[in-house]
TrEMBL record:
This protein's name: MATH domain-containing protein
Domain of life of the native organism: Eukaryota
Naturally occurring in which organism (per UniProt): Microthlaspi erraticum
SUPFAM superfamilies recorded: TRAF domain-like (SSF49599)
Domain MATH: 23-158, 178-309
Region described as Disordered: 1-20
Pfam families assigned to the protein according to its UniProt record, in alphabetical order: MATH_2 (PF22486)
InterPro entries named in the record: MATH/TRAF_dom, TRAF-like
Low complexity: bias regions: 1-13
Coiled-coil portions: none
Length: 320
């Protein structure tokens, strides 16, 4: 059980376990510990003060439990903040606490902590757990908590969370006013270059370009039309920034129901400014006289490529 004002923390908020790492804030090794366990006049033992952050703290051990906090029959462990440093701060102090008991059998530390943060103030200067270990478990040397001639070792980690100074806000925008951009490549069958890029267009606060390889890029040369959506080279992207994009890339047909469409669902970044499909559609289908993609049998020999933006993310960084 943990002490939290007049209310008990729920069992689900208490975390127990074993770990190899020793306490980082303070360690207390006590020899002949059973003498304190059998003492009628020893309620608690307080360590010397130790500093964490701007404050001084004390580890408090109740060998036979803190009876005022429902700790009868258990070992109780607490941390107390020095009242003078608390008064000087003129504010509440929030701390995460993890308590340790060394187990020689396991060569590890039994730990107990609460998932909630503890609030220290002038009205409540001590927090901890009233029921850390049953005394029967602690006193039985076969369990490994009392070892080497009645030794026992305790410890605590005190961590003071500080408010974050850096943050970011990730947002995905959709339902754009003008989500579609259509690009027409004239005299497509006689285009001499390997690839072509459209003029820049703006959607979702970013500038984009379509890129087409009429005879396929290096992965689809002579077999397929390659189509890509690129972020304009003038767009500035932070090295760590990732931009989510969902868009539909299309090659338009004179019969709209025969359009060829592929869904792009990916992340753009400083090292990945262009995404698309090397094998968007076969060149044989594209160039078919009756296929309807280049304007039909007596059409104008033009290719129409379209993108429809469905979602684009943006991230605001604080500070920028």
């Amino acid at each position: 059980m943990s002490s939290r004002d007049n209310n008990r923390a729920s069992a689900s908020s208490t975390v127990k376990g074993l770990r190899n790492h020793a306490p980082s804030s303070y360690s207390l090794k006590m020899e002949s510990f059973s003498i304190l366990l059998n003492s009628k006049n020893t309620e608690s033992y307080r360590s010397r003060p130790f500093p964490v952050g701007e404050y001084n703290w004390t580890l408090v051990v109740y060998p036979n439990g803190n009876k005022r906090d429902n700790g009868t029959g258990f070992l109780s462990l607490y941390v107390a903040i020095d009242n003078s440093s608390l008064l000087a701060a003129h504010r509440d102090v929030y701390a995460d606490l993890r308590f340790y008991i060394f187990n020689k059998n396991e060569r590890k530390y039994f730990t107990i902590q609460d998932t909630n943060v503890w609030r220290f103030n002038v009205f409540k200067t001590m927090w901890g757990f009233s029921q850390v270990l049953p005394l029967d478990t602690l006193k039985d040397s076969r369990n490994g908590y009392l070892y080497d001639g009645d030794h026992c070792e305790f410890g605590v980690d005190v961590s003071i969370p500080t408010p974050f100074k850096m943050s970011e806000l990730f947002t995905i925008t959709h339902n754009f006013p003008t989500p579609r951009y259509t690009w027409t490549l004239q005299r497509f069958s006689t285009l001499p270059k390997d690839d072509y890029s459209s003029d820049a267009f703006s959607v979702g606060g970013r500038s984009w370009k379509l890129q087409v390889y009429p005879n396929g890029d290096s992965r689809a040369k002579g077999r397929s039309l390659s189509v890509y959506l690129k972020m304009d080279e003038n767009e500035k992207i932070k090295p760590y920034e990732k931009i989510f994009v969902r868009a539909k890339l299309r090659v338009l047909n004179i019969i709209p129901s025969n359009n060829v469409e592929r869904l792009l669902d990916t992340w753009y970044g400083a090292g990945s400014r262009g995404w698309g499909f090397a094998n968007f559609m076969s060149l044989s289908d594209l160039r078919s006289l009756f296929g309807g993609f280049l304007g039909g049998l007596f059409g104008p020999d033009e290719l129409k490529v379209q993108v429809e933006m469905e979602a684009i993310s943006s991230t605001k960084y604080f500070p920028s």
